[in-house]
């Protein structure tokens, strides 16, 4: 008897996985600095962002799953929304941020 094939997400080679996780770490650090220290251009950068949040939870699962991420019936929400961290409020700030998530995002940036 042959078992059915389950569609698993494509796995990266180990070296590629390390590079991807390093990219995510750099992004987390960059967003922390941009949201808490170097904030002067954030409004200008956010004005370039288009789309809207689809509540997919992808941004809350970068590198590690956020402990405040709630999932109900396949829809995600933040259990501390309104008091959530500054770096969460500005995601995505630049197009590079979208390269760090593993799902499609409702936000996008127009090409320059």
What does this structure look like?
With 112 residues, this protein is of the alpha+beta class. Helices cover 29% and strands 12% of the residues. It is built from three helices and four strands; from the N terminus they run ααβββαβ. It has helices spanning 14-36, 42-46, 86-89; strands spanning 49-51, 69-72, 75-78, 107-109. The strands form two sheets. Strands 1-4 form a two-stranded antiparallel sheet. A two-stranded antiparallel sheet has the order 2-3. The chain is globular. The N and C termini lie far apart (55 Å). The mean pLDDT is 87.
Q: What is the element layout, followed by pairings?
A:
Elements: H1 14-36, H2 42-46, E1 49-51, E2 69-72, E3 75-78, H3 86-89, E4 107-109
Antiparallel strand pairs: 1-4, 2-3
């Amino acid at each position: 008897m042959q078992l059915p094939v389950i569609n698993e997400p494509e796995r990266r080679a180990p070296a590629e996985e390390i590079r991807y996780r390093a990219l995510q770490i750099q992004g987390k650090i960059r967003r922390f600095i941009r949201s808490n220290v170097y904030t002067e251009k954030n409004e200008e950068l956010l004005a370039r962002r288009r789309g809207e949040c689809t509540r997919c939870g992808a941004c809350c699962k970068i590198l590690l799953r956020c402990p405040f991420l709630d999932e109900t019936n396949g829809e995600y929400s933040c259990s501390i929304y309104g008091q959530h961290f500054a770096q969460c409020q500005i995601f995505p700030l630049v197009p590079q941020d979208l390269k760090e998530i593993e799902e499609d995002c409702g936000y996008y940036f127009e090409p320059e």
